[in-house]
Amino acid sequence: MSQFSLFRSTTALIILFFLSAISSSHADTFKHSDVQLNQEGHKDEHGEQKHDQREAHDDHHDEVEKILIQATRSGRIADEQPIRVELINREEIEEKAAMRPGNISMLVAETGGVRMQTTSPALGSANIRLQGLYGRYTQLLADGLPLYGNQAASIGLLQIPPTDLGRIEIIKGSASSLYGGSALGGVINLVSRQPGDEFSGETLLNATTRDGQDLTTYFEAPINDSIKTSITAGAHYQNEQDIDGDGWIDLAGYERYTARPRLFWEGEDGENLYVTTGFMTEQREGGTLEGATVANSEAFAQTQDSKRIDGGFVFNKPVFDTLTFNARASAMLQEHEHAYGNDFDDDEHESYLAETSLAGYTDKSDWVVGIAYQSEVFTSHTYPEFDYDYQVPGIFTQVDYELTDILTTSLSARVDEHNEFGTQFSPRVSLLYRPGDITVRGSYGQGYFAPTPFVEEIEAAGLSRLASIEDLEEEDAETASLDVTYTLGNIETSLTLFGSNVDNVTELEAFSSNGTSELDRVRLVNAEGESKIRGSEFLVRYYWRDVKLTASYLYVDATEVSETNEGRQEIALTPRHSAGFVAMWEQHGSFRTGFEAYYTGVQRLNDNPYLNESKPYWHLGLMGEITLGRISYFINLENLLNVRQTDEHPLLLPNRAASGQWTTDIWSRNDGFIANAGIRIKFGH
């Protein structure tokens, strides 16, 4: 039996064990409760009693939906979080699902301070950069569990459909105090939809002008008064597209299938259990078309076959009146078969989490203390010298305390004992000051990241040209932010100032393996000096009847020590200026129509023989959806200006890069104008 099959069988046995335990110990029919549970298990009926006392001085919150934030562990509603958390709600998820139903890339990319950076021009993979920090520093969670790995692969973002998401929570800046070394730059938590009391669901069909098709389904149903279930599944296809006719595939082809069942159980004494498992398989193809070649007159097909299976659970149980016990665990196994021209690379990624914690509250405070064990294992069947096995036990704690009615502080800290990089201490302090219509938040945090071979260039080109890794140190960062939000009638404004200092950034250094001037290999090194990031975000929203207008601006000054160690230079692929404008007119249950415009400014380019810096560009989009009963019809037009990077310079390099890539980095769009249209059908209640 293969390891993948063994893992799948073990996961099934674990789920069956929990189901049988529930059935045997709770055979009676329990009274159903619609109480929402946050990640540490604070019941909304308890939390609202506590929070309503805090809100007595502020009538504004009576008009706002109370959302308990999972990602911060504190059990507080969104408006009372000292740590700033940006939310993408179900309404926005539905909008973006009509634009990009196959993955969550567009969903998170259009949030202020968030940039989707394409890491592989051949396969189209991308990662998430928060406030200018590298994508590998972003921890991607699903209902608080690292189901996609402690370091989610760039291709993973393109394999998660948004159909079953209830909301998305984003923490920017170091969150290592909460989640360890994988959250050095922040956290994105994907929160699933909560099943209701009756059967319901939806099916979405989509097709694009680039020969792509999507089919996603979501269904939820109660089993009895205490058990509810949901399942989402999808099938996605994209035909290879060579848009500029140079023989290189600009839009990678793929065939992907996904499924994720979930189970929710609530007991009569307030305990609850959440269990999920996920399955994904994909074949992705890029590189040269059949019969085409690169500059050395050889074909260079680049493919990746992926299989992923994961499972996890979260269990909460009230202990006495003000304490809650929490236990959670997850496991993930992902298999890859890579081809980079004539080089083949098969590997496995494993990720495990086991965690227990105890949370409590008083009239003035919320606190949590816990222990965790994280494991991340990489095994290459082709290049075993790059195998790693990270085992990280840790303890963590967080205390939120109301100093006054308008001032709240949050202190959190974590100590990890990393088997490769030793003891790591990660603190964070946050303050919330809310004297009225003005809300001020400030945060300062420190964290670390345990380096792996998979920097962006290696994810794109593979391990074949990477020298053995020696004497790497952990990457360290300190991040700080100051956020001011002001609401006046129908206008909401927000200004954020942020900064980061990062030490020991892991980067590639090219060298010659044969003593000549030809740079044909790369090695991983810690960069000299600090990477410094300073910036600001500005956001304004205006609501007028059924119309919502949103404008945003992001300024990022990101620099690193220059290659010659003389002075500083801008970090590549980090635009100093970017902005966006979205207009949405919507009548619930009837129609929605929207227009969006996004500006991306000049970026420094690295190892690009054609340009030293990019050209600024605009991305324009237009969408519309009409609902007739249970059926909605939608159409979406992307990249109305038909912006393509290949209009500025060729994508293919005249010579193969030392890392093994045959293309320049992607700094713009590469798919040109594209339209999609489809139908959404809702069932049940």
From TrEMBL:
InterPro entries: Beta-barrel_TonB (IPR000531), Beta-barrel_TonB_sf (IPR036942), Plug_dom (IPR012910), Plug_dom_sf (IPR037066), TonB-dep_rcpt-like (IPR039426). The keyword Membrane applies. GO terms for molecular function: siderophore uptake transmembrane transporter activity. Residues 80-187 form the TonB-dependent receptor plug domain. GO terms for cellular component: cell outer membrane. PANTHER family: HEMOGLOBIN AND HEMOGLOBIN-HAPTOGLOBIN-BINDING PROTEIN 1-RELATED (PTHR30069:SF29), TONB-DEPENDENT OUTER MEMBRANE RECEPTOR (PTHR30069). Residues 217-640 form the TonB-dependent receptor-like beta-barrel domain. It is found in: Cell outer membrane. PROSITE patterns: TONB_DEPENDENT_REC_3 (PS52016). It is a multi-pass membrane protein. Its main location: membrane. This is Ligand-gated channel. Belongs to the TonB-dependent receptor family. Hemoglobin/haptoglobin binding protein subfamily. Residues 1-27 form the signal peptide. Keywords: Cell outer membrane, Membrane, Receptor, Signal, TonB box, Transmembrane, Transmembrane beta strand, Transport.
